[in-house]
Amino acid sequence: MPDDRTEASGHRPRDPGGKVVRPRPDPARADAARLRAVLESATDHAILTLGPDGRVASWNAGAENLLGWSEAEALGMDGRLLFTPEDRERGAPEAEMAAAAAEGRAEDERWHLRKDGSRFRASGVLVPLRGAAAPGFLKVMRDVTGRVLAEERLRASEERFRQFGDASSDVLWVRDAETLRYEYLSPAFEAVYGEGRERVLGDDDLGRWAALIHPEDREAALRSIARVREGERATHEFRVVRPSDGEVRWVRDTHFPLLDEAGRVRRIGGAGQDVTGEREAAERQGRLARELDHRVKNVLAVVQAIASQTVRASGSLEGFAEAFEGRLGALARAHGLLTSTGWAGADLRGLAEQTLEPYLDGAAEVAVGGPSLALPPRRAVAVAMVLHELATNAAKHGALSVPDGRVAVGWEVGEEEGGARRVRLAWEEAGGPAVGAAPGRKGFGTALIEQSLRYDLEGTGGLRFEPDGLRCELSFPLG
Question: In terms of CATH, what superfamily is 280-477?
Answer without folding.
Answer: Histidine kinase-like ATPase, C-terminal domain (3.30.565.10)
